[in-house]
Amino acid sequence: MRHLSRVARAALAAAALLAAVAPAAHAAGAGGGDPDVAAWQRSGRPDRLAVVRPGTVTLVSHGSVVKRLYPPYGPLPLSWLAANAGREWVRYVPAKAGAAKTVRIDTAVLLAPGTTLQMGRRTPTVLMTAGKTAASGTWISGSRATLDIDDVTLASATADGTDPAPADMAGRPYLAMGAGGHMTISGTEVIGFGRGAGAPARESGVTWGKGATGSATGSTFQGGRTGLRLTGSTGVALDKVTVKESVRDGVVLKGDRGTTVEGLTVEGSGGNGVTVGGTDRRTLSGVTTGDNHGTGLKATAQRGLTLTATASHHDAGGGVRLISCVSCTVDKAVVDGAPSAISVSGPGARVTVRDARLTGGGDGAGVALGADIAGATVTGGTISGFDRGIAVAGPDVRVDGTAVTGAGTGVKVYGRAHDVALNSVVVRGGRAGVTASATTRDVVLSDVRISGTSRKGLASASEGLVVTGGSVSGTVTAVDLGASARLEKLTVSDSRRGVHLAADVHARGQDLDILAERKGIQADAGAWISITDSRVRAPTALSGNGTIKRLGDTEVTLPPFPWLGFAALVALTLAVLLQTIHQVRHRRTPRPRVAAHVRNTA
């Protein structure tokens, strides 16, 4: 019995060893033994996969090699696959009389290193099957390989022929090139690519991945999940490219290097038009966005971004949004129809906006500078039609030579803003010209000209406001002070009230020229102002229960009498009087009679 027990134990041990080794051996035979099956495993185990290697095409179905094809060495035309792969893989489909040849791809395609797949004039229309599951879908991908697509219409299609496939399908097709890959797309229309779920590269219709390069020229990408994605790519050129009706963002540029953009148009995206981030010292030129549900162009944390001639039309989330963008420049931007045009926010953000033309109709701002930025400069340009032309909530802001028209408030300084300087700014129309809240400090206005506002020209509760030069005209109250201020060489005209000081406010004025329709300077109880070498002209020049002290060569008079208007009124009155006298004198004069023989009295 003891001997039999030893035998039994040995048998059991051998059986256990075989049980442990068998699965490993099977796995090695399935994946490790055949490189094409191993490639199928690494590729997410699609239902069908065509592995393209130099001189060989292997067809793998559910992990089993079905067939090997041997095309000529060199670039592989898609037309060769359509003629040789078989109906379940790649094939020509019947076309209507006179229609272009159509190729249908029913397999995922993996391009091995050193291979090239071409689509061109022999396959002008290509349909790629969209599966209900990720495994049943199709795609073309590769590393250190080349994909050339020239003058082709490339569209997704369901098994029952729906073209393009619905955007939420898990197996919609996509194109993606990885490390060392090269993808060129020219004169092509790509329709309905990008999966409803999965990794970012699969959700994007077309992706240049890490280390990939190539170009898209004169092409349109429509109805993608995300239209185009450049993630870690190198030297990709986008020229005369249109991306429209993407479910999410139209174009994503993230961590790419050496990308050049000329003539990129993104329209109708469900998210942002263009999202840019992860790369320093980037320049984008000629980007146009329109009718996107998100922001036209959104830039996340980076340094040295330069946007030149960016245009945004009716983007629902705003024109250009910069978040933690350091040493970034927006040059000659054009934004219209957006609730807000250019917004800057995020810790460390420091941005220059030059010569922008911003037109809006919403309740946002033409230029919005957030509380957490490090600083900003706005020079030149025009802003019109926003609730706030320029909204400053952050520190170290300079606005120079910008014209704001028709905004609810021309320039609003609020929040914790400090060290804010406005120089040669023009504000016309709207409710208020420039306002500064009580929480701000170190606000300086130089040669700021405000006119035609329906309420107040300059309203400030900011302690220590300094105004040098400039003018305010055509308002109800030209200058309304709720905190201490210094006014120098300021001209006020055509306003009902020139300067108003709230209770207990102290101010100083020098070289002021105030011409008001009712009150020149009004100081409420406890307020105090000294005016030096100034001129105040109004029916009530000085009023209120506060103190108004005149120093130097200060002149306080009634407004100049309008002699020309008075002379015109006198002349008109005299003319009416003379006409009345004439009629009274001749009221009894008989009318002249016409001789009886005269018949034509006309």
Polypeptide structure, described:
With 602 residues, this protein is mostly beta strands. 12% of the residues lie in helices and 46% in strands. The protein has five helices and 59 strands. The chain has a 59-stranded mixed beta sheet that branches. A hairpin with a 2-residue loop joins β1 (48-53) and β2. The N and C termini lie far apart (156 Å).
In oligomeric terms, what are we looking at? single chain
Task: Please state the average pLDDT score.
Answer: 91
Computed over alpha carbons, the radius of gyration is: 38 Å
Please report the number of helical segments: 5
Tally of DSSP β-strands: 59
SSE class = mainly beta
The separation of the N and C termini measures: 156 Å
Sum up the overall morphology in one term. Answer: elongated
Strand percentage = over 45%
Low-confidence stretches: 7-31
For the largest beta-sheet, the strand count, sense and barrel status come to: 59 strands, mixed
Q: Helicity range of the residues?
A: 10-25%
Considering the chains and any ligands shown, give keywords for the structure:
mainly beta; 59 strands; elongated
